[in-house]
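Why do we care about 3D structure at all? Because function follows from shape, and shape follows, mostly, from sequence. That is the central idea of this module. The next example makes it concrete: a single protein chain, its amino acid sequence, and then its structure expressed as tokens.
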Amino acid sequence: MKNNKTYRLVVTAMLIAIATVLNEFAVVQLPYGGGVTIFSQVPIIALGYIFGPAWGLLSGFVMSLLQFLFGLSNLSYVKGFSSYLILILFDYLLAYTALGLGGIFKGKFKNGYIDLTIGTILVCAFRLLCHFISGITIWGDYTNGNSLGAVFAYSITYNAGYMIPETIITIIGILALNKFLFPRLDNNGVLK
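And the structure:
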């Protein structure tokens, strides 16, 4: 039992480190946060799929803390306690923690490809929603108009502009793992 916990911790630490490094090498980096990376969400979704949703959420939370630390400069764009709170909660803590639920449908559709595709779309949509909420509440000053419609349009355009490609890349990466890695793992996440 102790070896299994140690193994799980080591694998988790490695995958969170890989996700963090991959996130730092964005293919497209937007000026106020957000960007398109190559597979940076995949390790966290994989942890949730391999070790279960509770472990995935914990892993996603650790990832969210690291993303917040690396994104501290984004705090300089907003003013006031409520703006800081919304930025921290919606752009980091909730958005990245939820990635750990990407494997929540494991075994539900009797096809790992469908399980992972639906789970990945769900968590990426939730992440988009978190960034959208942040966009309409604290980033609205960056719009070209003052109307609520302009704020909504700015937030959805800005955030979907990177989250749609990020979702597609993540689906490709997680499905590749499902083909080449996941079938080789036992119920404890150890290579057979």
